[in-house]
Amino acid sequence: MIDLHGALLVSRGAHAFLTGASSLLALWLLYRMFSRLRRARWVEDTPTSKIRSAAQGLVELVGQVEAGGHPPLVSPLAGHPCLWYRFTVEELQRRGRNTEWRTIERGSSDRPFLLRDDTGTCRIQPGAAEVHPRRRRRWEGNQRRPLGQRAPTGVLGLLGRRYRYTEEWLQEDDQLYALGWFESRGGGRDARAPEALARRIISDWKADYPSLLARFDRNADGQLDAVEWERVRAAAAVEAQQQMRRESTQPVVHTLARPPHKGLPFLLSDHHEEDLGRRLRRQSGWSMAGMIVAGAVAGWLWLALLR
């Protein structure tokens, strides 16, 4: 047994568990404190760009969300028409004399939607985003999935299982703040050098060598000589130019998604930019307070070993 400064006697196993858990919690809260603070700095220090003139890479955009021609999504718990949702289902479970809410199901949508400002539209891919929505509803019921199901009443309702539902969503025409990795495709922006494109075309032709021979083997000797290879290269150069012209006429498509480099943020929120920054700083502050408490408990437990 280990004496915790005269306040309590605990077994060595319990002491090791409590010390490890409080130490890990303090380290996690320390990481979260700096992570939230760094995100707040990104939000506050990154200038807002217009979609048409935005640079490639990490950018901040503000505009209205649109479905982009798709029918709206329907949130799975409450049936709200929306463009993005996130939900959690918890069950009230008994452990001895105590009861606690345990998460049994959670999920979110990942269908892309559009962000529009006064210069154009950008396709948002929300699958890996950290989303901070204003719309949030929490309620309780007697069914695992409340939508479209009739809850039991009377004695069955009192004796049945208890569930708690949480749902968040973004609606069409919401004002959205977005910070992520911006890329533009089409309109000749991603065209390669004509020489590289011609080499790729020749490589594709060589994959079907019989067709290549049928097209360029003028003397029918079953192989391509130097003159015939020159014709192949000339034809590939012409094909490359034609392909580049076709690609240059394609409309430009802008996308915002998760950055390819670790540590860069991908944030979506219908909070105002200043409100989002304050929200992230509050989360950082609460994490710091929790880290101080967890660190003090961990230190108190570690000191008990030195007594």
TrEMBL record:
Q: Which domain of life is it from?
A: Bacteria
Q: Which reactions are catalysed by this chain?
A: S-ubiquitinyl-[E2 ubiquitin-conjugating enzyme]-L-cysteine + [acceptor protein]-L-lysine = [E2 ubiquitin-conjugating enzyme]-L-cysteine + N(6)-ubiquitinyl-[acceptor protein]-L-lysine
Zinc-finger recorded as keyword: yes
Instruction: Give the keywords, sorted.
Output: Ligase, Membrane, Metal-binding, Transferase, Transmembrane, Transmembrane helix, Ubl conjugation pathway, Zinc, Zinc-finger
Q: Name one GO biological process term.
A: protein ubiquitination
Q: Name the Enzyme Commission number(s) assigned to this protein.
A: 2.3.2.27
Which InterPro entries does this UniProt record tie to the protein? Answer: EF_Hand_1_Ca_BS (IPR018247), MUL1-like (IPR022170)
Q: How is this protein annotated for GO cellular component?
A: membrane
MF GO annotations = ligase activity; ubiquitin protein ligase activity; zinc ion binding
| Membrane spanning residue stretches | 12-31, 286-305
Specify the E3 Ubiquitin ligase MUL1-like domain's residue ranges: 94-197
Give membrane topology per the record: Multi-pass membrane protein
Q: What is this protein called?
A: RING-type E3 ubiquitin transferase
**What is the organism of origin for this protein?**
Pseudomonas saudimassiliensis
